[in-house]
Design goal:
single chain, 463 residues, alpha+beta, two-stranded antiparallel ribbon, 10 strands, globular
Amino acid sequence: MDKSRLSGGNVSLCILLCMTFHLYSDPLPARVEHWKDASKNTLSYENLPPSDSFNDQGAPLPSRQGHKGPSFQSLNVSDFEDIPEVKAHYLHYSGKTGQEYLDRVLRRGEPYLPFIHSKIRQMGLPWELAYLPIIESAFIPSALSRSGASGLWQFMLNSINPYDIQVNRWLDERRDFWKSTSGALEKLKSNYAVLGDWLLAIGAYNCGLGCMQRALKAAGTRDFWTLARNGYLPAETVSYVPRFLAVSRFASYPGRYRLPLQWEDHLWTRVEVSGPVHLSRLAEAADVPLRILAEANQELNQPVTPPQIKGYRLKVPQEYADSITRALNNEELALMDLDTYTIQQGDTLYALSRHYGVSTDLLLEFNPRLDPRRLMIGSEVIIPLAAPMPPYAGPEDSAGIVQYNTVTQYQVQPGDTLSSIGRRYNTSAAELAYNNQLSLNSLIHPGMVLKVPLGESAPEEKR
């Protein structure tokens, strides 16, 4: 070609063609390696060429390179597209409804995917595992299932102990995208160490490691598809793995399937907080959008960092880390105001919490010697405030508000709703939602423990 004849328009056209080819083609592999044993249609390490990366048992892991350059381990999910169970999900996600769903979910996952991929790279795991939250929670950190599983990775309460995840009245770290991601990847890595096969390990994430081990023993085979097709696994798990493989294929090549492309990395860091801080005060002092702080720290049951957890680490975008650190270290800034109130005859803790806009739990945390059932006239109560409030004038301020003597606990039973529990205890669904940091549309599930405010005519106990 005569280089002298290349005009500016031709150069632009060449660049555009190259970019189009890049967006709609597979990322270039660092080296061609396969996990699929064609005779078994399962993941296998047999007959692999030498590799520089090894798993815990010394078996080589295939490498995968995306357009940005870093090397990842891959499940090579495209190798499974001819499996009938996977093909059915391919057809669904190829349609208009499936494409629209994946578009919404991947956009929702944009703040979290770079962090998840960085963790996966650190741990040497298959990079497609980053798309498991599409199946688990649709990338909604506050997602709560009917069985009580919560967060991006849907941890149950009985499965959090090994993974440094806390649940208490101040926070539910199953909704912490940082800690839950670390815990979920550790769980998947542990499953693989026991089972030696990624399809089995992913299936065990859904049905439980014990369930998968019992299925393997009963079937006498380690082939996932044999287990799935012959009734050895729960129906949900039978669908879970092929659905994950299909979703991962689409999410891995978004340009090819006209799904959103993520050009910017959302970089997160954690900043240590030494005492209770109200997020709205901190956002104002650091000139950070409150929405960002609230969405990044959805584990908080209230917009206040836990008073009695020393070294609580707030997750913040890296670009705001310096301004937030300066605000936290500025002794002249009051990131939470404290007021005092002297108890008068007829006062209740509930009426105080309603007037000042804080929960009864927060009042009790700042007043550990306070007995909500026996408020002593003349004693002082410390009131934590996020913003200046008019003084509370006493019981006359609460005209029209139902006064409650105390709060009891109720364990949710099958079929319960906030309204039905409210009727049982002579209170309202709105009061129940308020006392438990819920919305009126929040899902409640059997086994969940609710705080129930009791009026004078309410029964002492009903369970």
